[in-house]
Amino acid sequence: MIIKVLGTGCAKCNKLEEMTKEAVIELGLAAQIVKIKEVDKISAYPILMTPALVIDEEVVISGKIPTKDEMLKLILSKSK
């Protein structure tokens, strides 16, 4: 599983990255977490706002920070 956090480095982007790492550890999953800060790479994805979360090349969150429960459910559902 490859999880990408898209964002230029704002506080919300950093928070999403932190939450993602915590969720992966809590779920005990083997996942590679990649932070993408370059605007040209971010614009390759169909999003209108950052932060965004991409799991195995599917955008699952854009423009908001999920709750911890939402994050856990999202990652778990994509791990199957």
From TrEMBL:
- Which UniProt keywords are present, listed alphabetically? Disulfide bond, Redox-active center
Q: Which domain of life is it from?
A: Bacteria
Please list the residues that make up the active site: 10, 13
Every Thioredoxin-like fold domain range: 1-75
Q: Which cysteine pairs make disulfide bonds?
A: 10-13
**What Pfam families does the database record attribute to this sequence?**
Thioredoxin_3 (PF13192)
Q: What is this protein called?
A: Redox-active disulfide protein 2
Which lineage ranks, top first, belong to the organism behind this chain?
Bacteria, Bacillati, Chloroflexota, Dehalococcoidia, Dehalococcoidales
